[in-house]
Fold:
Amino acid sequence: MRSEGRRAGRLPWWDGRVGLLLLDVAVAAAAIVFDLGGIRRVPVPEPLYVAAACVAGLALLARRRFPFTVLIVVSVCLLAGTTLVPSMVALYSVAARRGQSLATGVSAVVVALNGLFLQFSGSFDAVSLVGAFSVLVVAPVLGGLWMYQRLALLEALRDRAEEAERNRTLLADQAVLAERRRIAREMHDVVAHHVTAITLQAGALTLKPPDERTAKIGENIRSSSAIALNELRGILGVLRDGSSEDSRLSGVGIPVAIRKLVGESAAPVNLSLPDPWPDVPGDIGRAVYRIVQESLTNAQKHAPQTTIDAAVTATGSTLTVTVTNGLATHHSGVPGSGYGLVGMRERVELAGGQFRAGQRDGRFEVFAGFPLGQAGDPS
Structure:
């Protein structure tokens, strides 16, 4: 689209199409050659006739932008004995550009008068008059009107196609919005209900605990459930209103949120964060947080009680996230969705980064790298 716009800017009279320019050059050259090779009707000096023929031919190069002006110029050149070929081309151009308008009617009358008083100054019969009128006036006008209607039809079809595309996009957006709201309702009615019940039951357990260890476990369950409800509230906002994620998951709020995640982890975590925290775009910051969050969750589900190493490093224009844990000796028994790694990969790729996950050196590693200098660049 940009290249087409540049071409149109260079050749505005020809809609940026070199083929139309070459066609007009060929028409102008043919008109000049035809005039110079014909028989002169008016006894004028040779230089004047050649100049008039060249002016009439070269004027045709402007017929797409100024068709009526070109017709006047080539009509004046008739006084020097040029032929009616440039006038016919100019008449066709007026009809093709203006359609059924006053300019087309006036142009047809001008060409008819030129043919009547200049080309047929001698005696002629009615048959010759009708034939000449058909060739000089009717044929160019009909050809131009046909081209005008063709262009109008193509423009109408193009507008209809664009309108249909806009309608399809609108319907698709409406369908997506309806589906997102349906999912939000299901999550609110089912997931939020159960998480709220867990929060309330854990809170009740902390009120009269049988021992200190039970009280601590109940408080951890209540705290995690409350966090889950806050996360769920943010997701419901995204699904219903298309709002962005929690503001704490952007900018300098990321290291605070990551440290909180590590503090709530049931497994030991060795955390390393850059100091100071680099200035990162919001989508990359949220991706970093979600990768650490999902990696910690997966490690605790699939390899409980193993030590987790989480490191975020910033070197030059690159931000990397690496989370590793030991391989599982036994499973926690907590069911998984099977979409954790897929979701992390999609989130990283949407932020413009690279992602990989798998066993390495006897440990399971999740790695993501983000090019800070290119992320979010609109160019």
